[in-house]
Amino acid sequence: MRAGLDWQRVQAMAAAERASYIARNPESARLAQEAGRHLLFGVPMHWMSDWSTPFPLTVREASGARFRDADGHAYVDFCLGDTGAMFGHAPQPVAQAIARQSARGYTAMLPSEDAGPVAAELARRFGLPCWQFALSASDANRFVLRWLRAATGRSKVLVFNGCYHGTVDDVFVDLVGGVPAQRDSLLGQVHKLTDHTVVVEFNDLTALEAALAAGDIACVLAEPVMTNVGMVLPQPGFWEAAQQLIRQHGALLVIDETHTISSGPGGYARAHGMQPDALVIGKPISGGIPCAVYGFTEEVARRVEHAKRSAPPGHSGIGTTLSANMFAMAAMRANLEEVMTGEAYQHMFTLAAQLAEGLRDIIARHQLPWCVTQIGARTEFQFTPTAPRNGTEAQAAMDSGLEQAIHLYLLNRGLLITPFHNMLLVCPGTSECDVNRLLQVFGECLLELRS
Q: Which spans are transmembrane here (predicted)?
């Protein structure tokens, strides 16, 4: 038995679903074969070939909570670009802003008229007064680490075991048997990351304090809720105590809200009274157009400015030519002002709560040792009876074979959830009927696995 299920039955269902997928998607198969002639790994990015499908599903168009593939099949999307389209595909205000801007220019390496209002809205919404832009959260996190190392004169960054902050090399360090180790999956890295990256378990205040006591940590980089190994919630009082320890030892706190922006219009930190020194938001902030933002408190911003003005002239290694381009600024302004509204979030919260409760009911009905966690518009089911407290526990609960079987079963019935783990997002375009359909098919899947 694995995760409370007979493994032979899981394998049999997965094989049947793979065969069904191949039969249903001849055009996607043809396009994948053609793409394989010139695309490395046969896909635009290599991880697109890591899904549960025998070959990639080719998307033809997407709008709201739905998309259509090259074979004409329609899907309800609970993946939403793994948060990149958290507010729906092609939200109308963003599409209109893009259409207007398309005739007015894309990039000039100069401020656009949207840049100031966007920064003002970010300050109002997230409570930090000073902002800069990047093309992805990965870049934004890289830039923040550079700024804060320069501002503090300290070289080390602390992360939590199992964390996710895009493709920032510094964070590819895990605890292996309690010992920090560079992830084997990181390709081409020639520098020893553990010289400048410290890693401890999430929710472990004792380990956090011991690491900070060395006095060489520039900043703690963290998601307020871990999201990449299945969701891991902070234990009651963790962040209150952690913030006090970070301040006490002269380090700074960077909160990455790229995923937890699902928690509310101002993100998890604002909703829960946290006071980070810096904040990063990527994927969804401009409605899916490549863009990210990072903000600082007034005090940290002045330290950052001093570090730059005190440095020799030349390239700082921070920022790219297309950062804050006019196209992205127009899209972000429309998304912030007209899409990421309180009303939209309330709709999402209501449906996510219904989804979470429905998943719990189905799992309990089938007497499976699984749990369900919800943070705002984000819901996840995990193959463990109690919610994990740290990255090690969350990693131990993951079962890629079972995940792939369930995901493919749902996909063949017109429902997409996030690959690599069991996360589901709802957006302003998701309906109660969509949620009920997901719950119905999920229940049918478990019935087939249990019968």
A: none
Whether residue 74 contacts residue 63, with contact meaning beta carbons closer than 8 Å, is answered with no
Domain with residue 63: its CATH number is 3.90.1150.10
Tell me what the mean pLDDT of segment 203-223 comes to: 98
For residue 363, give both structure tokens.
């799992």
**C-alpha 364: how far from chain center:** 28
User: Is 135 inside any structural domain?
Assistant: yes
Q: Is residue 84 part of a domain?
A: no
Give me the mean pLDDT over the 127-155 stretch.
97
Core vs surface per residue 309-329: b (16+ CB within 10 A) or e: eeeeeeeeebeeebbbbbbbb
- Range 304-307, long-range pairs (CB < 8 A, 24+ positions): 304/147, 304/148, 304/150, 304/151, 306/151, 307/147, 307/150, 307/151
Q: What is the mean pLDDT of the chain?
A: 96
Nearest to 168 by CA among 148, 193, 151, 150: 193
Query: Residue 87 in 3-state DSSP?
Result: coil
Same domain, 255 and 335: yes
Written as six digits, the tokens of 57 are 């599903």
Per the structure, the complete domain to which residue 188 belongs is given by 92-339
**Cα dist from 9 to 26, 99, 316, 397, 445, whole Å:** 27, 50, 56, 19, 11
Pair of tokens at residue 431: 């309906």
Phi-psi region of 448 (alpha: psi -120 to 50; beta: other; left: phi over 0): alpha
- Number of domains the chain is built from: 2
Structural contact between residues 410 and 438, judged by C-beta atoms closer than 8 angstroms: yes
CATH number for the domain harbouring residue 170: 3.40.640.10
Same domain, 208 and 122: yes
Q: Is residue 329 part of a domain?
A: yes
Q: Are residues 126 and 155 in the same domain?
A: yes
Strand order in the sheet with 59-63: 59-63, 66-69, 74-77, 415-416
* Distance linking the first and last C-alpha atoms of the chain: 14
pLDDT band with cut points at 50, 70 and 90 for residue 127: very high
